[in-house]
Amino acid sequence: MDNKVLIMGHKNPDTDSICSSIVAANLVKSFGVETKIVRLGNINKETEYVLDFLKIDAPEFIQEVKDGQEIILVDHNEKMQSVDGRDNAKVLAVIDHHRIADFNTIEPLYYLAKPYGCTSTILYEEYKKAGIEIDKTIGTLMLSAIISDTLLLKSPTCTKSDIEAVKDLEKITGLEANKYGLDMLKAGTDLSTYSSSEVINLDAKEFSEGEKKFVISQVNTADIDDVFSRREELEFAMEKEIADKKLNLFVFVITDIINTNSKIIALGNEKELVEKAFGKELDDLDSMMLEGVVSRKKQIAPPILEVIK
Ligand code: MG
Ligand code: MG
Ligand code: MG
């Protein structure tokens, strides 16, 4: 067991999970709590762009936590997205911007949740409140996370608080959000070096509702057709995940970050849930176009959860 408190984001970590872990570790350090930052999966290319830009090493990878380990969670709370062994760990704090599901603790904890576009926006406000300086590095980490989660403030998850934070962080970092952000987002769209099974797991989140278990996986692109041209091998990988994890449904979302649309591919014995959720039929290629849809959290998961209920 680690003597230090472990601080971590979700499995298949995204830029918010990694950046907010570092930002949160620095915050709690100023309150006298020593932490070790860890990650629950590979660093994606978008996050790699940020870490390279700042010349910061990626946090250490861990698979599970031992009984009694003290942990702080950022950017998630759902058990299926969290570290293995969490049930017997001691959760000291959660800082998150998602729905709350399957979350129980034995002891009291700090729980900070706001319906903002990004965990880093919540942390930004905590820094301000505590009067702690946001230096260029911390500011760039926050800015990167907010740009990533809100797709450069274009996602419907984006709030006034996110926009205000970005304005201030541009001043602090001297970066132009539009320029830096597009370069960062584009770095994340390079899928050429990934196998199909890696592509569908890059940003996959598992959900359960009642008896049903499903995955919604998302990739960003500047060209939907380019990703869709790999449909056959991607479907093969999706079918394998469905069999291995006994899923009822696998939804693969290809999001166009320039035009803010998504094309989805749905497979599984409950794929008609998707048709009900969006009031639209899947075409012969198990796919449908969703205009103006970019947010899994706000536009894709809720209608599917709704029809399951
Ligand atoms: Mg996240
Ligand atoms: Mg997030
Ligand atoms: Mg995301």
SSE map:
Layout: E1 5-8, H1 15-30, E2 35-39, H2 45-54, E3 60-61, E4 70-74, E5 90-96, E6 110-113, H3 119-130, H4 136-150, H5 160-173, H6 177-187, H7 196-201, E7 204-209, E8 212-221, H8 224-228, H9 231-245, E9 249-256, E10 261-267, H10 272-278, E11 287-290, H11 296-308
Parallel strand pairs: 1-2, 1-4, 2-3, 4-5, 5-6, 8-9
Antiparallel strand pairs: 7-8, 9-10, 10-11
One magnesium ion binds at residues 16, 75, 97, 118-119, 149.
Explain the overall architecture.
Helix 3 runs antiparallel to helix 4. The protein has helices at residues 15-30, 45-54, 119-130, 136-150, 160-173, 177-187, 196-201, 224-228, 231-245, 272-278, 296-308; strands spanning 5-8, 35-39, 60-61, 70-74, 90-96, 110-113, 204-209, 212-221, 249-256, 261-267, 287-290. Strand 1, helix 1 (15-30) and strand 2 (35-39) form a beta-alpha-beta unit. The longest helix has 16 residues, at 15-30. The protein contains eleven helices and eleven strands. It folds into two domains: 5-185, inorganic pyrophosphatase (n-terminal core); 196-308, Diaminopimelate Epimerase, Chain A, domain 1, CATH 3.10.310. With 309 residues, the chain is α/β, with parallel strands linked by helices. Helix content is 40%, strand content 20%. It binds magnesium ion (3 copies). One magnesium ion binds at residues 14, 149. The site of one magnesium ion (MG) has 5 residues, from helix 1.
